[in-house]
Amino acid sequence: MSLQAARLFAPKPAAAPASIGMGRAARDLPPWLAVLSPLILIGAWSALSYSGLFPRDIVVPPEVIWQTFIAKWANGELPQHLGNSLLRLTVGYAIGAIAGIALGTLMGASKQAEAYLMPSFLILRQLPTIALIPAFILLFGVGETVKIVLVAKATALPVALGAFQGVRNIPGGYLDVARVFRVGPVTRFFRVILPAILPALFQGLRTALSHSWVVLVAAELLIADNGLGQMMEWGRQSFRLDIVLLGVVLTGVIGFALDKGFRLLERAFTAGRAA
Amino acid sequence: MRTLRLPDLRGLVLPLAALIAWDVVAHQGTAHAYVFVPLEQVAASAWESLQSGDLLNGWLASLVRTATGFVIGAALGITLGAVMATWRVADMLINPVYQALRQVPLLGFIPLISLWFGNEEPSKLLVVSLAAFYPTVLNTYEGLRGAQDRHIEVGRLFLATRWQAFRHIILPGALPAVFTGLMQATAFAWLSSIGSELFFDPGPGLGNLMLNGQAAFRMDVVLLCVILIGVTGYLSNTAITLIAGRVLRWRNVR
User: Fold this and answer.
1) Which of A158, A175, A255, B105 has fewest C-beta within 10 Å?
2) Which residues of chain A neighbour B13 with C-beta distances below 8 Å?
3) Residue B11: its chain A contacts at CB < 8 A?
4) Which residues on B lie below 8 Å from A17 (Cβ)?
């Protein structure tokens, strides 16, 4: 019953479409279109910007954004913002992933644990991370802790679900075969159980990564004195659209790169498996 | 034979334990007294805000924004998805741009939307509409493109016209995917309706009640809003699942 419930909620979307990445739809298009897409966007953008329909300060031309990027990078401001954001992401993600794997494995391996934990888990899933920001500010203040807790929360739930489904769906036959061949516990874990869990676990880890990046940027928009979100918020308050747009592009590029990087990692780990 | 069984009560242990622990800490009454408010205070403030109508009005405001944005976003999304799926030229031109824009999380666009369209209600509605728009486009597109070739072959054997093929083969095949998109859109729209209130100017809504509660160190109010947000999300999810089940009841579900 609860597994069914968990499945029902499984396609719960991340807070932003970025998590879906370049899906199936993109793949059956010719590959050169992937290169063309940013070009079309930049071309249309430049045309709009130079058409004079809107003031240049409002629709900032691409090369001004590029110059802002160079200037901010050279004076060290941008590397610092990015470094802070990525550090927060790494710490929060690591904590969340470890907690999620532990929780998911426990629920998957023990019916008893599932009966105790799953209802609370499903309740927690109904509370969107963004909506918890005010409550977490009261609980954890406005320092570093609250951002890391938010990222960890956003990470832990999808990871736990992935681990749970992975463990629960290990084909019973695998374990039987391992038993027949009298495989030792260590070998059984590394050669039978782990490979069977990995695909579902990776799915959860990847969803969690895109999701936690979104949550972090949102948290930094509200509460931070540095980081990519804060840079955008500063640009917003001081009407610097070039900085805001730079932030928008960087948010997208980093989210995309994280997802792509993770896919490559995943492929390396699951190499040799029949797809 | 069906036997009457007690529902599994083990799932209640953890939430109850958490509530008791919360209440114990709350009645220690020291440094964190404003955070760990006693449960009776949450209940009292729930009753109070229900009577004053604050909670109901805020909830309605957020809900109306969600519904409006959902209708706008989903209608445009289904349209664009259908156009891209059926017209090759539009697909070539729009799809890459859509894919590129999709890489930026919606919340990342908020500073830009605020500078371009202001900090008032229209900007919030725009965010909600976009939240409903993205998943609907994607799923409508994939659903319509994913019609199974062998089904279309059968249609061709029966000399189906283009319209008949669309009406009786492609459309029914796409509906489950469209509903998946609408389900995601519902969840996104509700979340971003609340979220948008946190990032733009104060106005009516649950998100703002929550922010005010936070500013006034009223954990009871914040908690109340969080609970209401979760319950509403759950109910809307259940509702759209039921609707999808009814519309798609002809399907053989294993």
Assistant:
1) A175
2) 116
3) 115-120
4) 102, 105-106, 134-135, 138
- The three-class DSSP label of residue A184 is coil
Whether A116 and chain B come into contact, CB under 8 Å, resolves to: yes
Most confident of A6-10, A178-182, A228-232: A228-232
A35 at B interface, C-beta within 8 A: no
- pLDDT tens profile A91-149: 999 999 999 999 999 998 888 888 888 888 888 888 889 999 999 998 888 889 999 99
Predicted confidence (pLDDT) at residue A14 exceeds the cutoff of 60? no
Q: A10 in contact with B at a CB cutoff of 8 Å?
A: no
Report how far residue B30's alpha carbon sits from residue B35's, in angstroms, rounded to the nearest whole number: 10
Residues 195-214 of A with CB under 8 A from B: 213-214
Shortest distance between the Cα of B241 and any Cα of chain A, in A, equals 9
Measure the CA angle with vertex A66, ends A65 and A72; round to 5°.
85
Number of other residues whose CB lies within 10 A of the CB of residue A167: 21
Query: Does B3 have pLDDT greater than 80?
Result: no
Residue with tokens 């031109």: B93
Domains and CATH numbers, chain B: 50-247 (1.10.3720.10)
Distance CA B182, CA A193 (A): 36
Chain B residues within an 8 Å CB radius of A218: 105, 107, 195, 199
Q: Structural domain tally of chain A?
A: 1
Nearest-by-Cβ selection for A26 from B99, B112, B219: B99
pLDDT the model gives residue A8: 36
CB contact under 8 A, A15 and B105: yes
Examine residue A235 and state whether it is found in any structural domain, yes or no.
yes
Q: Is residue A46 part of a domain?
A: no
Dihedrals phi, psi of A81, to nearest 5 degrees = -60, -50
Q: Minimal CA–CA distance to B131: which of B203, B184, B85?
A: B184
Is a pLDDT exceeding 90 seen at residue A169?
no
pTM of the model as a whole: 0.83
With an 8 Å Cβ cutoff, is A221 touching chain B?
Answer: yes
Burial A193-209 (b: 16+ CB within 10 A, else e): beebbbbbbbbbbbbbb
A176: domain CATH number?
1.10.3720.10
Which one of B107, B141, B210 has the shortest CB-CB distance to A217?
Answer: B107
Give a yes or no: residue A43 inside a domain. Answer: no
Contact of B135 with B200, CB cutoff 8 Å = no
Cα–Cα dist B244/B247, whole Å: 5
Question: The domain containing residue A90 runs over which residues?
Answer: 75-269
